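Hey,

The postdoc asked me to send both predictions to you directly instead of through the lab channel. I've kept everything plain text so nothing gets mangled by the mail client. Protein one:
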Amino acid sequence: MEHPFLNEAVQFSKGTDYFFDKFNGRNVRVYLNKDAKERIKLIAFHFPIKTSSREEAEKIVKQLSVLLSKPYYVNARGRWIDLTIRSNMDALGIDLFDSPPFKIAIEKFANKIDLYLNKIKI
């Protein structure tokens, strides 16, 4: 999976099947889901958050599940919480080829996640 804009303009690093960087001190991964014709169908921003234990992660996921609705998704993975925003780019108001608004959108999601996490006091 190559995407010159994410590699060069936004300066994300490339993982196996995603791009990654840090925003507001949070790790973020960007997944581009393509259809059979190689057109980008969905975009997902994934924020992995490490907790102190599996029990804490499960407790936080229960609390966040009450607060969050689509396009946000949350689940526990061991002692990690996976917070994901997943939708098509139009619905999220994102243009992969316009660097400043793309970065602003990611920062906006990172800030919203911080608000939700602060709301449940973690």
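Protein two:
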Amino acid sequence: MSQAVKYLFLIFLSLVLLVKFGLPGLINMATFIGNISSSDQPVEKQDKLAPRPPRLNPLPEATFSAQINVVGFAEAGTSIKLFVRGISIDETVVNTEGEFKFNGVHLKEGENEIYTVALDNYGNTSESSTSYLITVDNEKPKLSIDSPNNGDRFFDKDSPITVSGSSEEGVELEVNDHFVMVKSDGTYSTSLNLSDGDNEIEVTAVDKAGNKTRVAIKVNYTP
């Protein structure tokens, strides 16, 4: 029965009751109509829509520190669970600006996978955020100056000289504050102009975790 036909029937029935039973019958009929109307209202259903996955600020590939801060964004008011190496280690609530933070997250030496998930007030769980793999590395990179040797003396047209040595692939290497490319086999080479008298040659190597090694020698130059 369509809604319009239903109400026409009720109006007709109301008139019959009014004529046959008077006002009390009409009041009973109005109560009946009210119950039908209320039954037509939609029943509030529990939210089953999962929140959007959290977004993490980029994390480093490697670090020498055993602790880092994890910062990200998600729907305000949702709870965020932090997972490290597949274990839920902490939980926080997203603030009104949509930001969340975990301070001093402890990492173990080696590889640490980090990701988060969001939970709303109805218990719906989001998909995981982007996963980051962070390596904790406390070892300083290998570094040597193979040529020249400490204390070497140079004359006349010997300048510029060639400074060469070895380190590790992937490090950032500088010779006297000038960037030098490291080859795939870990070796490096560059030319260096000398000044009159003693010259210090300083080479530094910094790996992806931030570990730094410094090597320095002195040579002498007489024009």
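Summary for protein two, as requested: The longest helix spans residues 3-21.

Thanks,
C.
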